[in-house]
Design goal:
about 190 residues; alpha+beta; S-adenosylmethionine decarboxylase; 2 domains; 6 strands
């Protein structure tokens, strides 16, 4: 439920005209803080972007929470070493892959780890999406990678985009062996 609320808050933030830097947008002109194309009981007026978080539970009642969570464990990757160790290169290729899949990046955090006696340090890259997130962890000493792509399907079905993003990244790393999982999230037990 928390990730759906976060994704909703992000979509509402952009619906109000707010950008990555937090510059003022629609909310300061008295425009309704509602999601475009989404049914509402009445337009929700927000005095400040943070007020949208207080409205999130009401908006969440309108549609069931659901999404697609894809994971992949990649082994014996045959890609160039830079994709496993270079945080700048990996961060840039993540953003390109997200855009190519038709998803919207709203933030990025990439961390490079120091080398150890076992080999060069790996990288963790996370891209926050308007639709949810992408996360990559590399283990260059094992030539291994884990991928995590999650999309909320709140405003539309983004499943094909999630699959396209996953395929693009798997092909980048060129694993000799992979283990993949697909999980439908947010289903209500009967």
């Amino acid at each position: 439920m928390a990730s759906a609320r976060i994704a909703l808050a992000i979509r509402a933030w952009f619906a109000m005209g707010m950008g990555l830097s937090g510059e003022k947008g629609g909310w300061d002109r008295g425009e309704p803080a509602i999601l475009p194309g989404e049914p509402t009981r009445a337009p929700i007026q927000a005095e400040h972007p943070a007020d949208v978080l207080l409205c999130a539970p009401a908006l969440l009642e309108l549609r069931p929470m659901h999404g697609l969570h894809l994971t992949a464990d990649l082994h014996d990757c045959q890609c160039g070493l830079q994709w496993l160790t270079d945080r700048e290169a990996l961060g840039a290729v993540c953003l390109k892959a997200v855009a190519a899949a038709g998803l919207q990046a709203v933030g990025k955090l990439v961390h490079g780890f120091p080398a150890t006696p076992m080999g060069p340090g790996g990288v963790t890259a996370t891209v926050l999406l308007a639709e949810s997130h992408l996360c990559i962890h590399t283990w260059p000493e094992q030539r291994g990678v884990t991928l995590d792509v999650y999309v909320c399907n709140f405003g539309g079905d983004h499943s094909a985009k999630a699959h396209a993003l996953m395929e693009r990244l798997v092909s980048l790393f060129q694993p000799r062996h992979s283990e993949r999982n697909e999980l439908q999230r947010g289903r209500v037990a009967a």
